[in-house]
Amino acid sequence: MDREKLENLLKRVKAGKLGIPEAMQEMKFLPYQDLGFARLDHHRGIRQGVAEVVFGEGKSVNQIVEIAKQIKLSGGKVLVTRVDKEKAGKIRKLHRELEYYPQARILSSPKPGKTGKAGKKKPAPASGRKENFVLVICAGTSDIPVAEEAAVTAEILGSQVERLYDVGVAGVHRLLNEKDKLGNARVIVVVAGMEGALASLVGGLVDQPVIAVPTSTGYGANFKGLAALLSMLNSCAAGVAVVNIDNGFGAGFLASRIDHLIDSSRKQAG
Predict the structure, then answer these.
(1) CATH 3.40.50.1970 in the chain, residues?
(2) Whole-angstrom Cα distance, residue 132 to residue 208?
(3) DSSP state at residue 66
(4) Is 133-269 a CATH 3.30.450.20 domain?
(5) Which of the two residues, 17 and 23, has the higher pLDDT score?
């Protein structure tokens, strides 16, 4: 159950097109549904605007299949993270409409078009405003899986996404050659392993919010991402926020939320 579906339901009741018993039947799974192995928070779509997201790692195929089934029945969109190719193949035999993004390891309901929410093209920005896209940057090719998790998540949630990959600090000219993208993005996600310096560099160049994602890419002293995490947390550049190691989903979700909040504020301002 998401906000749009609940609003339409209430309008139908108000207009006399739907009786209260029928409306209660549609709302019977609120606020959660106990499946024995999981308690699905069907109310989350109303509270947060997005149905409960499923962390696929550690869950069985049968568990994910049943969770996806119940989310769809409640009217929500399915989004499962950290699903390997083999597991995704088995799930899609029973949920063929779900799309799989192998680099991102995400299984989801079909995402909106790149113009934003399905069928609705975002308006062109006024002079001096940022463009209507989220920019996902990664330092090296080894960081792409985490970057794709962020990018695909933001796209599924209705944001336009541009990608800028393999532009780490070992060759800073590669990043500086893309100054138009850097300057025009609404919000920027920076994904980096090794020493994690790219987030500070980007944060010092732009006036947009920067969401830094440390990755576990690196040699021993990287400590599986801890060195990059500490570097990003200690950034001297203002406006840099940091999510957990390898948490591309969290960065993509936050970036999309910021993107949609900007849209909402502009609409309210007229």
Answers:
(1) 133-269
(2) 12
(3) H
(4) no
(5) 17
In contact, 123 and 164? CB cutoff 8 Å: no
Q: Is the dihedral angle over the CA atoms 4, 6, 10, 13 positive or is it negative?
A: positive
Q: Taking the model in full, what pTM does it have? A: 0.81
**Higher per-residue confidence, 16 vs 186:** 186
Q: How far apart are CA 193 and CA 197, in angstroms?
A: 8
Alpha helices in the chain (DSSP H): 3-14, 20-26, 44-48, 61-73, 85-92, 144-156, 173-176, 179-184, 198-203, 226-233, 248-269
71, pLDDT greater than 70: yes
Segment among 12-26, 191-205, 206-220 with least mean pLDDT: 12-26
Q: What is the mean pLDDT of residues 15-34?
A: 74
Q: Are strands 210-214 and 79-81 parallel, antiparallel or unpaired?
A: unpaired
